[in-house]
Design goal:
alpha/beta; Rossmann fold; about 45% helix; about 15% strand; binds NADP nicotinamide-adenine-dinucleotide phosphate
Length: about 250
């Protein structure tokens, strides 16, 4: 659908979950992939191999701890140097923290903001001159439905995702005339390790019942939306926050 032969995609948080699925889908569309995460080399090497099997002409990876200042810029520089170009940046890496409002510490706040918001901001800032020199590109921020509606015990996560949606709009206003398309995806509950961790089976069943469609989303469904947003079919979609949540936020 997206037809990405000759394109290079940089996907953050690509070791597992939604980021891995996005990398695999863009690979299947013909893009070469640079995978970034902070975990183990084994996970990234496995994902890189799966990307090559899916159709990527090349798939390289780098360990980048996006909680560190300057890591986002260093990641973009490494990807550009090793891949030769960057046509698509998917800012997917993110962390969660569930705590009562009064329990969040300065450290919690700083870490969530650093990974979920500062890194996408500065990765985008670093990639724009590269895309500008190439004549255009796509930046996709993986936000959340929780950037639009709130949830209990997620005050800091929720504000980082709301920030990503507004960053999407600000970037789109400034960059779309140069052929750099910026959009956000706002998933509802998606079955990933990160989503399931720390939730008991009863809570998960209740959460699934709360979704009008009656189930959690899949990582492949998120990847499909990203593939649409970077395809020619979405050329007129700019500065949009695409909610895909099984209908959750309609009530
Ligand atoms: P996940 O399974 O927890 O995976 C998170 C990814 O981010 C991993 O690849 C992780 O890799 C990477 N990451 C975490 N800390 C990092 C750091 N300091 N530096 C670099 N990479 C780091 O999460 P997921 O459920 O797939 O979610 C992916 C994105 O979608 C997140 O932004 C999340 O907020 C968003 N989202 C998820 C859902 C959902 O229900 N699952 C819903 C809405 C939005 P390492 O640990 O190897 O570094």
């Amino acid at each position: 659908m997206a037809g990405l032969n000759g394109k290079v995609a940089l996907v953050t948080g690509a070791s597992r979950g939604i980021g891995r699925a996005i990398a695999l889908r863009l690979a299947a569309e013909g893009a070469a992939i640079y995978l970034a995460a902070d975990g183990t080399a084994a996970e990234l090497e496995e994902t890189a191999g799966a990307c090559r099997s899916a159709g990527a002409p090349d798939a390289l990876w780098g360990l980048h701890d996006l909680s560190r200042p300057d890591a986002a810029e260093a990641m973009v520089a490494a990807a550009h140097q090793r891949m030769g170009r960057i046509d698509i940046l998917v800012n997917n890496a993110g962390i969660r923290a569930r705590k009562a409002f009064g329990s969040f510490t300065h450290d919690d706040f700083d870490r969530l903001v650093a990974i979920n918001l500062r890194a996408p901001f500065f990765a985008s800032q670093a990639v724009v001159p590269i895309m500008r020199a190439q004549g255009g590109g796509h930046v996709i921020h993986i936000a959340s439905q929780l950037g639009i509606v709130a949830s209990r015990y997620g005050a800091v996560y929720n504000l980082t995702k709301a920030g990503l949606i507004q960053l999407t709009r600000s970037m789109a206003l400034e960059l779309s005339a140069e052929g750099i398309a910026v959009n956000a995806v706002c998933p509802g509950p998606i079955s990933t390790e990160g989503f399931i961790a720390g939730r008991n089976p009863g809570e998960l069943e209740q959460r699934a019942r709360d979704v009008p469609i009656g189930r959690f989303g899949t990582v492949e469904e998120v990847a499909g939306v990203v593939a649409f947003l970077v395809s020619k079919d979405a050329d007129y979609v700019i500065g949009h926050a695409l909610v895909m949540d099984g209908g959750y936020i309609v009530h």
